Each structure stands twice: as C-alpha cells, then as structure tokens.
Amino acid sequence: MNKNKFKTRTFDVTNYLHNELDIAAYLRAVIKDGDQDLLAAALGDAARVFGKTQLTNNNALTKKVFKTL
Q: Which of helix, strand or coil describes residue 69?
C-alpha cells in the first residue's frame, strides 16, 4: 500500500471571494482577460457568493459591485 497518497479537492473561487471588493477585483481581472466565456463563469461565481436571488433583488448591492469595477 502507498501511504503517501495526496487528497485533493476541487478548486472553488467562491471560497476566496469574501466581500464586494474581492468580487470587483475578480471581475476586473476577468474583464481584462477579454474571454467572454470566462466572464460569464465569473458572473456566475459572483452570483453564487451573494446568492442568485439576493443579487437580482438587491439593486443597491448590484450597483455597488459594478460601480467598483
């Protein structure tokens, strides 16, 4: 038996997006990259952080995130 097996887990960027500034920086970097598919995925990540319902129903939060971009 191999006792030196490594356990891995799937990377999830949402574990590192703790506030609006983190999300804005993340989206800024993705926009700079210019990949539309990546941008769509990043917006999905942002929605998961705040919860899809909260993001769509809370205009103040949405404006705050995109204003910081």
A: coil
Strand residue runs (E) in 1-69: none
Q: Which of 10-14, 41-45, 63-67 has the lowest mean pLDDT?
A: 63-67
68: nearest Cα among 8, 24, 16? 24
**Would you say the pTM of this structure is higher than 0.85?**
no
Residue 26, C-beta contacts closer than 8 angstroms, at least 6 positions apart? 13, 17, 42, 45, 46
Closest CA to 42 of 16, 9, 61, 4: 16
How buried is 39 (Cβ within 10 angstroms: 0-12 exposed, 13-18 middle, 19+ buried)?
A: middle
